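This week, think about what follows.
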Amino acid sequence: MSDTNIPIDSKKIANDRRLESWNPAIPAWRVLFTTELADLWVGGKALYLLLAFSILLGIQTFVLATNFELSLFTPQEMVRETIKSAIQVSLLIGLIIGADSISGERERATLEGLLLTPASRKQIVLGKFLAALSAWPVALVITLPFLALLSQGGAVFGQGMVWGGLVGLLLIPAFTAVGMIVSFLCNSNKTSFFISLGIFMVFTLVGQVIGTTKIGLFGQLLQWLNPIPAGFEFLSQLLVSHGTFAEFWTSLASPIVFAFVMIGVLFFYVSPGLKIEAESVNKLWTKLIRAAGLAVIASFMFLLSATPVRALPQAQSQGGDLQMTISLDHKTGKTGDSIPFDTILTNTGAESSAPVIVAMNIINLSQEGDVVDPEDWSPHRTQYIDSLEPNQSTTLSWTVNAVLDGSYMVYLVAIAQPENAEGSGQVVASPGLHLTITKFTSLNPSGVLPFAIGVPVALVIVIFLLFRLRRRQIDAGESS
């Protein structure tokens, strides 16, 4: 055998080994999934993004512990904000990876070879989609020590993990699918990244502005339809306002529908039409994006200007036979405490009462203090009673969540529903519940610093070790 035959024989042996290693029982999407995972994690792309996330998370935690205003946050509020940050960053990472998944293959001229493999187009999309989701569990693990520190051993740690994981499980796959849909419709990464980040900014900023201004019915509808603020509202109600899943599960309707629609479009529209070039669809997509952007801006400007003010007519009060008592007259606590109490409403009249509405209010007894927003202090501020028979009483349960330190007065008012548009009713007030709230003990900055520094340093070590391993593999391949 001559020397000239050796390279040919070596190439034949290598090809034979590849054929022998191919196991047709392994689904093609799993092979592509492992390949994409290696590219994301061994290649370092996902690790670099998570390193930036861990640095931001460490800074946020340290600021919560050292800043005077922010250090007054309760453990529930700090856990909520940390989980929101983890979800938003993981959502953005999934969106970025998804935006590179198809347009990146086109730009690198590798999509044609991928389409020539035995894998179907749906399997290709599935493998890339699952690989893009791999950053979310790792980000959640990175968040664990910070959540444990901020919760200070409270039950909110477990609650935050469960409900935060549920919201992330809905939002992150949905926006990863959005990134892949945009990538499918673009020929270049630059266009795909620009459009994907624009969509993310629209969802995030519009939700924040509408939620801050609290404008009109149409604005509330947009707030409910936007999956990001809807999911975060669900977290706030369960973690901070001590609500239950049965009461506020409807807040997840928008994230659930959005996730099903986006994932459905990805697998039933994008995957069958996967091509080497985006062709004319790219121009159509660009026009649609521009039109949608103009529509969002126009709607946003309309919402800001649509704040009607109505003049309320004066009305005369009528007498009533309702009396109300309260189970507590004074309570001392600290910020973050939940204070339950009861009120008893009695009809002392000789006739049945009309339907009654009972509402809670809270005032700051200090003239120099801030005005209290009752929505922040109680998840249930209004209760309705159909009617009360003569001498009948009903007990209503309430909960107040101490948000700020100071001296406050909680009272409730009951009023019978008027019989007609011109009617009114006599307001009945309960005795006041005097709350004396002290400051919550802030976190120890010296105890936070090791977490804020240690987690990023650990990730840097992992990245360095993977870089060394990759270099050794490359050197070994070159030497052979």
Observations:
- The chain is about 60% helix and 15% strand.
- Strands lie at 322-326, 330-334, 338-347, 356-364, 382-385, 393-401, 406-416, 428-429, 433-438.
- The first helix runs from residue 6 to 21.
- The longest strand covers residues 406-416.
